[in-house]
Amino acid sequence: MSQADDPSARHLTEEQLHSQLIYDGKVVHLYVDTVKLPDGSTARREVVRHSGAVAILPLDSDGRIVLVRQYRYAAGRALLEIPAGTLEVGESPDVCAARELQEEIGYRPGRLQKIGGIFVAPGYTTEYIHLYLATDLVPSRLDADDDEFFEVLHLPLSEVLARIRRGEIADAKTISAILLAQEYLK
Amino acid sequence: MSQADDPSARHLTEEQLHSQLIYDGKVVHLYVDTVKLPDGSTARREVVRHSGAVAILPLDSDGRIVLVRQYRYAAGRALLEIPAGTLEVGESPDVCAARELQEEIGYRPGRLQKIGGIFVAPGYTTEYIHLYLATDLVPSRLDADDDEFFEVLHLPLSEVLARIRRGEIADAKTISAILLAQEYLK
């Protein structure tokens, strides 16, 4: 049973009274909504509506995890992350996962397993990331977006865990995927 | 060595050429920046500048994890999460962690250990969450914000992991904190 179906949570619900579009960008669609709180009073909610995303934990034929390093302007630094990308309009998460893998690391997944999903910042964005494990990788490259630059690294799980502990891997979706895939990793 | 200091990442850097404030809200401060890419071309970056946050994994005297259930308007459902909150202006993460714990679960931490930190959505937000483990909890309550409604649950680690696997816990900071605290949990 998901939280959404949990009748015990119903009394916590906030109801939309009004919604105003502030900015309609490429990634960020910002709204300011007025909501009715459980006690009947009202509050303002700033909401980034986002089309959703996928992130894929790829395992190579040696059982190493394939990561990408890319500069993240909002973070102000390069981050080491699992491959990921935003859903295009009407695109299914499975199709998006296979596309992003080919664009970012040059492989398509022979096998793609859903391992979960995460809300990244539910205080102000609707973004939900579908998480996958990709195995049986087959070389296949698609061109990445013009404004994306990557380095690809293959690291054993022990090294990925060490880099997480040292703070060198500090990306929420990457750390979440490692925990969710733990039963498949050695 | 952090990624920021990694000389191998320098050629990936994006340089700010221009920044325009679009919306200056309570939580969301939205900018559209123009950046110079590694190949010399330019691109637009939508950036939510955020003051940063803390999230705390509290362990009660029975070793159970203390979680809060709250309705998350952006997610459209109630989520089960570790206590968390946004840094106030000039507030240190340690002070913020102790404050949020008292507001959300009615305890102050006898011991507070930094276990790491995460970027939640580095594609478009600067938000970085400082992650803590809180133990030796002492009853102490501070009033929560008027627009926040919580339920508090104490669950053993095995139950938290089962709910993560079933998708009933789907919050990135909560799942990340569980992995980062693993050596302290049993």
What does this structure look like?
The structure is a homodimer of 186-residue chains. The first copy, chain A, has 2 domains: 3-49, no CATH class; 53-184, Nucleoside Triphosphate Pyrophosphohydrolase. Chain A is built from 3 helices and 10 strands, in the order E-E-E-E-E-E-E-H-E-E-E-H-H. Chain A has helices at residues 93-104, 157-165, 172-180, and strands at 15-24, 29-36, 42-49, 53-58, 65-72, 77-81, 84-86, 107-119, 128-139, 151-155. Chain A has a 4-stranded mixed β-sheet. In chain A, strands 1-2-3 form a 3-stranded antiparallel β-sheet, with no helix packed on it. Chain A has a 3-stranded antiparallel β-sheet with strand order 6-5-10. The two termini of chain A are 30 Å apart. Chains A and B meet through strand 1, strand 2, strand 3, strand 5 and strand 6 of A and strand 1, strand 2, strand 3, strand 5 and strand 6 of B.
